Amino acid sequence: MLPNPAQTDFSSDELDAIRAQFPILTERVNGHPLVYLDSGATAQRPQRVLDAERDFVLRRNSAVHRGAHWLAAEATEEFEDARATVARFVGARPEELVWTSNATEGVNLVAQSIAEASLDPAADPRVRLAPGDEIVVTELEHHANLLPWQRLARRTGATLRYLPVSDEGEVEGIDEVIGERTRLVAFSHASNVLGGYSPVERIVARARSVGALTFLDSCQAVPHAPVDFGALGVDFAVFSGHKMLGPTGIGALYGRFELLDALPPYLLGGSMITTVTMDGAEYLPPPQRFEAGTQRISQAIALAEAVRFLDELGMERVAAHGERLGARLAEGLAGIPGVRVLGPGPGAPRIGLASFVLEGVHAHDVGHVLDERGIAIRVGHHCAQPLHRRLGIAASARASTSVYSTHAEIDVFLEGVAEAAEFFGVAGTREVLA
């Protein structure tokens, strides 16, 4: 039974039907039912996604864009249908969606291509950087949306600046930091640590006013809410398959076609050329220009099936479900003495994710206690060391949800955190959210 899109959140019967499609959720850990609250790192996959990839490999497995036989034609058609399906899901045209191995590759693709273009005086000035230009990021960023821009700045002589964040993780200084020398602004759509949304419209508007490009890390937004990159007005964006019920080894880069067409290729090899001589080569237009070598064919097909699954659930309802779970996480954690909840305060929008610190207790120890109870969360710095440093902490514990997560699981998690607080002798009376 699939949900009724006219409703907002999922009913208990609907959630049961959704969960029944995820085989791994029947597993037990240390004698306890698995409570999987690490979807922000990697989401689980429904049976139909597993079946879609397996069916392709069993029945139509072949190289794409390079064979004249029936299998190659079928594989190519299904591969490009997958591109169209995923592109439509994020408000893009098929020619604006480049398959990558993950979102990290997408960030590096754009950064490296801009570095290459910056060496060519004949390249489109929109995708060139020079000494004195500025790249702007935020203090929120995952390392994958920071390190490539650091290297790009070093290679081009540009200056890297950043938008600071408040104690609650709100991006500040937009008008002050993004200025006339800014050429590129790279920022996250939703924080993988704090769960709050960035002010995308404000940042894009400010960047446009000074003629700067925008690059959006949408890994934590695309799986959880309706996203339309065209409507948002961003120039580039990335997201990954394994966070949105799809397989690992597949991600996508969105880029406005005219900008993709202005960039030189990142990887060189087969299937991305028109003509090759011993002295040089001419390249295909996007997206094939950026898809050298054998592609992630079965993974792309499985990701398209994950997109169809999410579409059937209804992304408005997926968003409502996640927001309610996120609010329950934040409120429940705030009611446990000794717990510091990171990110937006009560009532502020957040995805179904909350990170926290238990006073005097290392996040890894909290994670171990929860794991003994079958509760899977993420602990550490979540590939966001500068943000943790800004917040005055070395590490945090993070619970993150997906479409299959339930309010009952949140209650089990909150009980586990409260028990951990008692186990480690954190002072106070337990007040788990009722």
TrEMBL record:
It comes from the Bacteria. Residues 35-413 form the Aminotransferase class V domain. Gene3D superfamilies: Aspartate Aminotransferase, domain 1, Type I PLP-dependent aspartate aminotransferase-like (Major domain). It catalyses: (sulfur carrier)-H + L-cysteine = (sulfur carrier)-SH + L-alanine. Pfam families: Aminotran_5. SUPFAM superfamilies: PLP-dependent transferases. The keyword Transferase applies. Its cofactor is pyridoxal 5'-phosphate. One of its GO terms (molecular function) is cysteine desulfurase activity. Its EC number is 2.8.1.7. Keywords: Pyridoxal phosphate, Transferase. It is an enzyme of class 2 (transferase). InterPro entries: Aminotrans_V_dom (IPR000192), Aminotrans_V_PyrdxlP_BS (IPR020578), Cys_dSase_SufS (IPR010970), PyrdxlP-dep_Trfase (IPR015424), PyrdxlP-dep_Trfase_major (IPR015421), PyrdxlP-dep_Trfase_small (IPR015422). CDD domains: SufS_like. NCBIfam families: sufS. Catalyzes the removal of elemental sulfur and selenium atoms from L-cysteine, L-cystine, L-selenocysteine, and L-selenocystine to produce L-alanine. Belongs to the class-V pyridoxal-phosphate-dependent aminotransferase family. Csd subfamily. This is Cysteine desulfurase. It comes from Antiquaquibacter soli. The lineage of its organism: Bacteria, Bacillati, Actinomycetota, Actinomycetes, Micrococcales.
